[in-house]
Amino acid sequence: MAETPPKAPAASPFWDAQVHADRRPLLLARNRIVAALRGYFAARDFVEVDTGTLQVSPGNETHLHAFATALTEPEGVARSLYLRTSPEFACKKLLAAGERRIVEFAKVFRNRERGALHHPEFTMLEWYRAGEPYETLMNDCAAILAVAAEAAGTKLLAFRGRTADPHATCERLTVADAFTLFAGIDLVATLPGGEPDTRAFAEAARSAGIRIGDDDRWGDIFSRVLVERIEAHLGIGRATILDRYLVHQAALARPAEDRRVAERFELYVCGVELANGFAELTDPVEQRRRLEVEMAEKERIYGERYPLDEDFLAALAAMPQACGIALGLDRLVMLATGAARINQVLWNPLG
Question: Which superfamily, per CATH, for 33-170+238-345?
Answer without folding.
Answer: Bira Bifunctional Protein; Domain 2 (3.30.930.10)
